[in-house]
Amino acid sequence: MFVNSISAYGQNFYAKKSHKQNSILRAPVNTNYGADKVSFQGGPRPDVLKNQMKILLSQDIWSVNLSVKMPENSLERETLLEILQNRLKLDRFARLTNERAKLKGLLSYVNSLSSQNPAHKDLPQLLQELKKYGNIDSTLKTLNKNILLEAKKNKPAMDYFNNLAKIENEYLDKRIIKPSQMEKFWHKVVKNNINADGQHSTKELIEIVSNDQFQAVTSAKGLKTAAPQLSKKQLLLQIEKQYEKYLRENIEIYEGRMDRSVDAQIARKMIYKTNIEGISRYPGIEKQFSKVYETVENKFTYKIDRLDGIDIYPIGEIWQDMRPVEAAIKSTMKEVSSLNDQLAKDPSSKKLQAALRKKEKALSEYREDWIRGMKFSIKYEGLNRERISSAGRLAEYDYLTGESKTLKRHRNAFEIYNNNNESIPEEYWTQILA
Fold it and tell me: What is the DSSP code string of 40-100?
């Protein structure tokens, strides 16, 4: 399942674990979860510190427009991104839940005014607003159904926040975290909220937080000005983030492809070209790149090692079977388009009509095969997430798969499929297979 050599120089990126490659596909689940929880340092254990930060950062998690401040350290950044990535999957859940709460509140207020103060000046306007919802019982029933569906579709993310709520209650009871501490942190968030006017989606907030040192500076009028010149330290950090982003997007850990030296070479060439202006300002800075790249690679190694020993489904084999089908769909779509163009010029041609019907039938069959594979991919990836979550390694897994282009395509297709009566409209196929 997991990848090996990523070094541009052909060295073994995961040499220390080479004897364990692919054991994650077969080994029994490791139940000794507590073995790595011992802290030999003073103060709270790392897992406690992380949980405290999760509680502080998630105080606004169910708002439609999230309040977020820029992280002040690496722990805060990592934790905030973890929270936002889980919330991203529940954006529709949050929107529907807030919509239901708004409707129930409006209904309760209208009923209260109607019975206690029917001459209230706001009542006609409120009744008019309520009428927009149509049949209230039917609307609430639909909202309830969709909310339950979203929670079920995104169970791992729901479990993440439900578990966090339990930890928060436990920490408050044991005074590991205090209400005054939460309130103080919340004031800090409100004061420095980068989403004060609610213009950023959760996905945009993830991008901003991931790259906060490198965003264009925004003036008071909202106009973007040129980004400031980076210091040597900032440039190295930018290169590290770019390298990490590229690897997260392009390394599919389910593929089982061992040699990643080509990916590393491409990434490093792109990064050098992108940052050539900054690099030229600091002669000799290239000597530090190897250490920067090694830092990212070691991070990957550590997170992959953390998943070692968990028995999962090898969904990369499903993806491999889907690739020839994708190629056939693309090829047949072009042939169908060409035949349609020919028929437009010669609409009475029986030969062209027969050829088009044949190709359309083949295209439909290829697409059914692809949808079947996509559904298997979604199903078994979800089961893998549950197993990894049970092993306490969901954060590592989300890091390694959170930017997976294949998983994103399949999830996008699955959402389209579910929202269109279990079918994918014609206009979406090009987008899905891009």
Answer: -SSSS-HHHHHHHHHHHHTTTTTSSS------SSHHHHHHHHHHHHHHHTTHHHHHHHHHH
